[in-house]
Structure formats: C-alpha cells, structure tokens
Known about the structure:
Layout: H1 7-18, E1 22-26, H2 32-41, E2 45-49, H3 53-60, H4 71-79, E3 83-86, E4 97-100, H5 115-124, E5 132-136, H6 144-154, E6 164-168, E7 187-191, H7 194-205, E8 211-213, H8 217-248, H9 252-259, H10 283-293, H11 299-309, H12 311-325, E9 334-338, H13 353-363, E10 367-371, H14 395-399, E11 403-406, H15 415-421, E12 425-427, E13 438-440
Parallel strand pairs: 1-2, 1-4, 2-3, 4-5, 5-6, 7-8, 9-10, 9-11, 11-12, 12-13
Antiparallel strand pairs: 6-7
Helix pairs in contact: 1-7, 5-6, 8-10, 8-11, 12-13
Amino acid sequence: MEPITEPIAAALLERLQSRSACIGIVGLGYVGLPLALTYAEAGYRVLGLDIDASKTGAINAGRSYIQHIDGERVGRARAAGQLEATTDFARAAEADALILCVPTPLDRHREPDLSYVVATTDALVPHLRAGQVVSLESTTYPGTTEEVLRPLIEARGFAIGRDLFLVYSPEREDPGNAHYNTATIPKVMGGSTASCRAVGLALYEQAVAQVVEVSSTQAAEMTKLLENIHRAVNIGLMNELKPLADRMGIDLYEVIRAAATKPFGFVPYYPGPGLGGHCIPIDPFYLTWKAREYGMHTRFIELAGEINTAMPAYVVSKTADALNDVGKPLNGSRLLALGIAYKKNVDDMRESPAVEVMELLEAKGAQIAYSDPFFPVFPPMREHAFDLRSLELSAQLLAGFDAVLLTTDHDAFDYALIEAHAPLLIDTRGRFSPGPKVVRA
C-alpha cells in the first residue's frame, strides 16, 4: 500500500495508531458493547451512542446488560475513564471513528430492511466533520456501503477518501464462545478507496489480533454473507437428512459424530428445531435478494432456507405424533419448552426457533410453559408475545407435564433430572440418548 501523504488522512492515521483517537460505537447491543469494551481495553477513549437510554445508563453506571459480558469489564472501563455512553448523537462530532453496529433484519416479505442503517446514518450525518472514518459492521448485501451510505455522506459535501473515510468490516461475534472474542477473531475489512483501506487498517489493527484486508467494501460484505450461507446450507443439509434418518431408524447424531472422526474433508454440522440468531436465518436472503438485480436466482440458498424454515413445523408434527402414541391429543396437552434462547448458554432470543415452536403448539391448543435460566420473564419481542415466567425445574414439576421439549440445550439444565422425571421427551438437539420415552425431533 502506498504511503498516505494527504494531511487529513495522515493526521487521522497518527491519532489512530497512537491510540489518542476517540472511537465512537453506534449501537450498543450484542456487537456494539463488546466492541466498545475491546477498544477501551486497548487504551482508546470510547464514546458509545445508542437511542436506548437504559443501555447508556447501564454503561455509565458500570453495569453490563448482556449476560455473557462481565459487568466488571464495564466497571473497569468506566473507572479508567475510557468508556462513556450517551443518547446525544450530536456528540458524534467528538469521535475520530464512528463504527455502526445496528440491526439489519428482513421485512415481512423477507427482503432487506436497511431502515436502521439509514436512520442511524441520517442521525450522524449532520454531525460529521473532516478527518473522521465511518465503518459499517452490520451484515448486509454487497453494495450497501457504496450505494446507501456513501451517497448520504457525500450529500453533506464530503469527499470520500480525501476528507472523510469509509470502510466496511463485518462483525463476527459469537455470543458465549469461550475460545474466541472480539479481540482475537480476525477482522475482515474493505475500504471505498486506497486511503480508506489504510485508515481502516489503522482503526482495527490496534484493537484486534489480525486484520484481513480485501480489495473493496463489496468484497468484505460478500465475505460475511459467504460465512453465514456456508453454515445455513450445511445445517439445511443436516435438517433434510434428519427426517430421513428418523424414518430409517438411524440416529443421525451418532452418524455425524462418527463422520467427524475423519481428520480431513468433513466438518460436522448438526440439525435442530430451526435456525436462530441475527445472522444465519437472515443473511443468506440478503444475497438472494441482491442476486435478482443481476437476473440470477440462488437456488441452493433458497432451498436450504425452505428446509430450515420448515423445521419448527416438523418439531410440532413429531410432538403431536409422540403424544398420540401415548393416547393423548396435542390439543389440551400441557407442554414444557426447555430453553427459549436461539442457542445454548446465551441470553439472546433473536430469531429463536424455540419461540416459533411454542407459538405453533399454542395455536394447536397446547398449554405452553417454559424454563430458561437466562430469561426469568419472557421478554418483549417485536413479533412474539407470551405472558409467561420461567419455571424452576423439579421432579414434581416435570412429572406434571404431558411432554417436555428440549428446544435449547443450555448446559445449566439438570439433564439427569429431566430424563428421570419427564413422562415424554421431545429432543430437538440430540442431547439425550435414544430410549422408550425419548423422541428425536
């Protein structure tokens, strides 16, 4: 890369490399909060911006509001004067870097919803100044940075790559992962221009162990989609094989574990009640949508999406069959769902298939309850609502239900207690060994 000689870029590079820059993190959720802490712990002054006053208030009080993020980290960053949070977006002018970590969901037609990205950029643009770098981390389709963000910024009169710098670097958070964190996961980054890439490298290389530069923002956007499409397609394959193996009387989990002993050429993926989290169920459809612009159809991706989306209904069908086999109708049965998070050991319910399973069962007349140590009360969600509280597991409680569904296999559950006292177990995660009262779904 050619050395940067433009005065504005050179000054910004110096501030970033010397860690005297102020880093603004916009959106303080599952991506933004750990990123803010990572920069604070690397020695930067960090300003968090969010429209949710409860989040900014918690940070300023030195508390974490995300279960797997240690509150002591927030407290230390606050005590050291490295971290502050605010709802006042006018203070974005204080930051040398603004990193956007906002949601990119699908709308009800399963098309990209960039309203959060656009609204956040609109809120920031009046307060931008020369000598800042703006980085988008939200997962999105190739072209978003150049086609959506860049025009909004240029309309303010800035020249991208000369007095304001634009990069895309997709988040790779894996909540609850004990082996990797924000600082140790390699960071993919692409810039709008060569100067933008140089500034983006300086922005991230001080806080993360490795920065992987790519040639453009589009390549960086496509990289994140490829990662998640890879998972979605392979999980879809396992979910397609799940009913077949069941019909053939074969334990698919046993087969996957056996195949995984091959030291090359095989990566184990596991079936489940459907896909959850903000990334895997959503991101593939961003590329499917964008592909239509080029007159192409991503049939492989769409097929995997159909299979994965159908899994909650499959779980309900298996539950109804299992109850029927013991002479009980689904309508009126008392059912207990174990785990409502989208994956084990996290307090994250985004796109959780467990919630869809519960809704489908309730729609068929079942009486639904749940137990999840991460959610004492069923939280408010945009599209789902249950007026329920988590139940504490006991032998008497378990025995009082017609069936117990393992929907999210948190390690905190007492599986021996569950297996001993549940009259019927619907196992969607392969946690229990096959037995007379265990039904794989």
